[in-house]
Structures
1.
Amino acid sequence: MSAETLAAVFSHLCGQGRVFVVDGCALPVCERCFGLYAGAALTGLWLLASGTWRRGLPDRPVVLANVAMLLAALAGGLHLVGAGPAWRLTCGLWTGHVALLWLIGAAGHFHRAARNGPPHPPWPLPLRLQALAAAPALALLAVLFTRLVATGWVLWTALILLGAAALLAALLSAVLAMGVWLVAVLRKKTSQEMPRAENGGR
């Protein structure tokens, strides 16, 4: 697929105002969206490698860190804090990381709830520390990318496509799991109300 075709496809999702130029060719999305998809792709790889995708929603320390990352990214998106490619890329990386982490966690949470399974246990300390290290690690990656990377257009475009696919799959999984959970809740409620109605009619 050519660079022009990819740019046309992603133009429906991204304004493509400020883009990184690699190998003399612009990436198909803006700096912030590149971070969004790259952050999701990297997070997906970490979730698979560490087995965290089976752990459900994160616990409180990770939640607080995720909220702080999103607030910082929001401030960047509103142009209240920072400027420049490294900051825009950082904001995108943080957003993509949190989005995929929570979509995958929500899918696991609703899937277990639909089966009336016990709640997920708290994340073990090593995984919690890894999740807490995501913010500085991704910020460092953003700085290194903007200062050092001048080649690898195919690699970075593949990372964009991988991140977009990961976000779409995670979103569909979360919505499907929530739908299954809602059906299970309604069935349980109906089964509980039927004996009451029968007893009331006697």
2.
Amino acid sequence: MTGEDSSSESRLKVLHRDGLMLIIDKPAGVPVHRGPKGGASLEDEFDGLRFGLPRAPALAHRLDRETAGCLVLGRHRKALARLGELFKQGKVRKAYWALVAGGPAADEGFIDKPLGRLDVTRGWWMKVDPSGQSAQTRWRVLGRGVWNGAPIAWLEMSPLTGRTHQLRVHAASEGWPILGDGIYGERDTGIPLQLLARRIEVPYSANKPAVTAEAPAPEHMGAALQACGFGGEPGESVENLGR
């Protein structure tokens, strides 16, 4: 079943549900699992996403706390193992929307820059590192505009590898950091990270079409998207963007 579905026991929007997996619309600002110091996390909501199964679903991959959009959950152990293989093998196709400061001169491109840990004191902060792990990203410009008095660009970014903070580091390394990125871009702007896991394609079965889901643009990205020419989701009025 594909489309907007929801559980009465969970506040999370379900973009796709079948017997093997769920794809949910992760809200920005919420970690997917508890950190070493505890605290609330997205996993707290998973029991309300059982939909009749005896166990709650579990994470098949991760999204950063600040990132919104498509997140895949496996509904049982066999499905989780299969999903884990697909992500590890790079067979799951992902497309993100990013709003960046300034923007690239070209309309499309390819970034091939290995990434490594910044240093042992900074957790999972990353940097471009020639001796690091391979990291590749394709991108294309979907729109350009001016927001808050400065030029910005709306990009679709497709990671071909799955490194931590890959899109954020790659964008910053090209000179156009993602807006609201207080780690790799300008700090203390008060702007939430303008990054959305827009679309995902999961080829779970060899003899069936890939499972596809698309997350709507979140409210906190609406104003900048509109400045770049985004007209809203189907059926949504332009006046509702960014509200």
